[in-house]
Amino acid sequence: MTQPPSKNPLKHLRHGDLRGIAQLATEATTSVARIAEGVHQSVWDSLGVAGRAPGQTGGITGFVYQAVQGVAQLLGKGADTLLATLQMRLESRQGSEPATPQREAALAVLNGVMGDRLLASNNPLATPMTLRHQGLALDWQAPPAGLKPKVLLMIHGLCMNDLQWNAQQAGRVVNHGETLAATLDSTPLYLRYNSGLHVSQNGRELSGQLEQLVDQWPEPLEEISVLVHSMGGLLIRSALHLAQQQGLAWPAKLRNIVFLGTPHHGAPLERAGNWLDTLLGSTPYTAPLAQLGKLRSAGVTDLRYGLLLDGDWQGRDRFERAHYQRQPVPLPEGVACYCVAATLAAKRSTLSDRLIGDGLVPLRSALGQHDEVQRCLVFAKESQWTTFRTGHMELLSRPEVTQQLLHWFTPVAS
């Protein structure tokens, strides 16, 4: 008799995950204590009772809050030291156990929501950027056999990972990239990255990794094509802009970019989150709670307007409601660019294009259209395609999307 699959989530954890979770628990405890103290002092302020500092209580109450935070940090450091030692011993005895898709999906979401904080605190749950082939990170000291002179690189979106290119449709696996790579006679590569970092930070690292790819590829690399979903489109545009400024070699190998549901000009849900920050901060009683909204990552706030470059966000409060004056970055010259946009509506209209879109990205944003002419991305008419009654995530699983890609890249018989 077949045993039902285990519902125990702990089976998906690796030894190092416990250390990362302990660090998160410590940070959560201290953060909640700070918020509670802030609300507490807001009440005292309304009664004319001053605290030690803005948002901090005084006297015995202040001592209690300090004690809670101090004990949490002390216990956290002790647990981190113990778990780090235990992790090294277990991994030296048993080796590195394979990760499950469930674990990788959970880590992808965690990194998307707060990956910048994970990296800043050296949390082992932070995802490093890697180029991957057949489920493994590329090792240039021992590259896999059978690599072709052409490459198709696939870049996932926010809170996702490379494994999710294998999407399910009616019980069958759909992978647009694998099908397209076969058509282009290319080696399919996948990028895995921490989507909670600024787009420009990831773009800089991706540019460096692609330069290394051109330099380390076992045989002369002829061309690179890129298939991206959602945030991945912002990432490749950022990387390409930076590489061209630095005069790197890999942009000369780039031939095609296909964008699936990329928020070129931002996504309204992040703008809604920004409005919530403003509303919570409008009264002294709710102002401490606004800190909860500010836990969202730099990658998430970059999606508000589709920020690509360091100069778009450096020196600014990324939670400020003011409109960002981002630098226009046009589509690259000499590269064939295609875009697939989706809408949940049955047909196009002004309302559905701007407000509905695919549920996350407005249709005009996905098509690169903007009210300011200098910000419009000019896709050739035959290089853009819209699919109806389709959600943002469905772009990865719809067979008709695969067929459109094949239509674009299959040579016409003479």
What's the architecture of the largest domain in CATH terms? 3-Layer(aba) Sandwich
What is the string of SSEs from the N terminus onward? HHHEEEEEHEHEHEHHHEHHEH
Classify the helix fraction into a percent range: 40-55%
Find the CATH superfamily of the largest domain: Alpha/Beta hydrolase fold, catalytic domain
**Secondary-structure-derived class:** alpha/beta
The main β sheet shows up as:
8 strands, mixed
Can you give me a brief rundown of this structure?
By secondary structure, the chain is α/β, with parallel strands linked by helices. It is built from twelve helices and ten strands.
List the helices and strands and how they pair.
Layout: H1 15-46, H2 59-94, H3 101-120, E1 130-133, E2 136-137, E3 150-155, E4 167-169, E5 172-174, H4 176-184, E6 187-192, H5 199-216, E7 223-229, H6 231-246, E8 254-260, H7 268-280, H8 290-293, H9 298-302, E9 336-343, H10 350-356, H11 363-366, E10 384-388, H12 399-409
Parallel strand pairs: 3-6, 3-7, 7-8, 8-9, 9-10
Antiparallel strand pairs: 1-2, 1-6, 4-5
Helix pairs in contact: 1-2, 4-12, 5-6
Explain this structure to me?
This protein is an alpha/beta fold and 414 residues long. It contains twelve helices and ten strands. The protein has helices at residues 15-46, 59-94, 101-120, 176-184, 199-216, 231-246, 268-280, 290-293, 298-302, 350-356, 363-366, 399-409; strands at 130-133, 136-137, 150-155, 167-169, 172-174, 187-192, 223-229, 254-260, 336-343, 384-388. It has an eight-stranded mixed beta sheet, with helices on both faces. The protein has a two-stranded antiparallel sheet with strand order 4-5. The radius of gyration is 24 Å and the shape is globular. The protein folds into two domains: 13-96; 130-267 and 325-409, 3-Layer(aba) Sandwich (Rossmann fold).
